[in-house]
Amino acid sequence: MVDWDKVVNYLQENLPEGVYNAWFRDIELGEVNDDVVYIKFKDRFKLDWVESRYLNLLRDALKSVDGKNYIIRLVAPAEPEELKPPSFNYPEEPVQKVMFQSNLNERYTFENFVVGKSNQFAYSASLGVAKSPGNSYNPLFIYGSVGLGKTHLLHSIGNHIQNFYGNLRILYINTEHFLNEMIQALQNNTMMEFKQKYRSVDVLLIDDIQFLSNKESLQEEFFHTFNELYHKKKQIVITSDRPPKELLALQERIRSRFFWGLIVDIQPPDFETRLAILRKKAEEDGLQIEDDILYYIASNIKNSIRELEGALIKLLYWSSLTKKEITLEYAREVLKDIVTERKRTISAEEIQREVCNVFNLTIADLKSKSRSKNIVLPRQIAIYLVRKLTDLSLNEIGQSFGNRDHSTIIHAIEKIEKQRKKDKQLKEIIERITSGFEG
Ligand code: ADP
Ligand code: MG
User: Fold this and answer.
1) Taking Cα atoms as reference points, which of 411, 406, 416, 401 lies closest to residue 368?
2) Which tens digit of pLDDT belongs to each residue from 128-151?
3) Which of 235, 273, 326, 402 could form a disulfide with 203 if both were Cys (CB 3.0 to 4.6 A apart)?
4) Residue 17 — φ and ψ, nearest 5°?
5) Is the CB of 149 under 6 A from ligand 1?
6) What is the pLDDT of residues 222-245, one digit of tens each?
7) Can you list the pairs that 31-34 forms with residues at least 24 positions away whose Cβ atoms lie under 8 Å?
8) What confidence tier does 269 reach under pLDDT thresholds 50, 70, 90?
9) How far, in whole angstroms, is CA 220 from its chain's centroid?
10) Distance 130 CA to ligand 1 centre (A)
């Protein structure tokens, strides 16, 4: 594990403050595997600047932590204009296609993929691959839990490439199908054809690679296919429900291949993105639906976009069946099985009290101006939890913490958000307190 604070310290010590603030202040540590370290930038412009001038310094900074020579990969989300639905000039006549069963689903495209904070890295990396297959990140590895858009992105890549490079052989395959096909090939004595098929593609899109786990002969075959395609500079895109380092039942030599390219994750969408997705889906279905109902769904279904869609579909279905107009009351009734509404509203004070219990502080401490370390962290945790568990605005949260201004509140939330991912103990504390409220 890279001690990121040390890297930051090194940079601060070795750069003029202005330079540090301009280019490095908001960089974050991404994936780390052995000697490859991903560093996340907020935008492309900063990334390019740092890459052209400060790469060696970054290398030294990482080396200062534990003496290792890391390989550094800089990544940035898509540019704001890239985040808008791209208006590709698709060829009027589809480019002459080769006869090849690609398994692509045309329903999934970049245009109808809603981009938000939670998926922008995955989106822009996918777009990069689609624009220049085989020449950008190879392999591209996208991971995230179920229903967050991995399969959608995979098909989008394939569809985009198909529209622009019609002569490329593109193949989408779910790992389970790959397995079934192989078993059949073994039974029918057609392994040669099977191998030939997979090793002759230009773009291999392989979904849900976690299904390779514990399947030795499949892994063997995949390994050789991967190598051959990779060395021929053919594009490979892989999805998984977990990061490579957690694919424990996969041979190490396969896992390590994934780090040759780029690894990006998709997180559950935030509220704004959930709302945008609902709006988009409603629009696609030509549906008039009141904002308060979309708000209701977006604030109560959080973990998966598939569930979000499911809720909308269910609502439509029932309303077309019963010919009833969709009102908020009606939505509540129809969705009551899907939605687990918060049973009661939680107050900022309850959360403060709970955090004080855990850290043995008083509420006055939390609200005080003290910068003492053993108060600052609990205070930030409490702020973070109030944001997460209540509907209070940033200003209201500020008021309930001794009139702090809203930038302080944002800072606290972001800091804990970030820290939580790196610090297991902190994560546990937060989960414990949270579960006390959701129980
Ligand atoms: P996963 O493969 O990660 O389990 P899918 O790609 O199957 O998830 O996505 C589930 C559903 O949600 C699909 O219908 C997909 O179109 C939709 N979806 C996911 N992400 C988005 C997004 N960002 N914008 C629009 N629709 C999305
Ligand atoms: Mg999927």
Assistant:
1) 401
2) 999 999 988 899 999 999 999 999
3) 235
4) -55, -40
5) yes
6) 999 999 999 999 999 999 999 998
7) 31/243, 31/263, 32/1, 32/2, 33/244, 33/245, 33/256, 33/259, 34/256, 34/259
8) very high
9) 29
10) 18
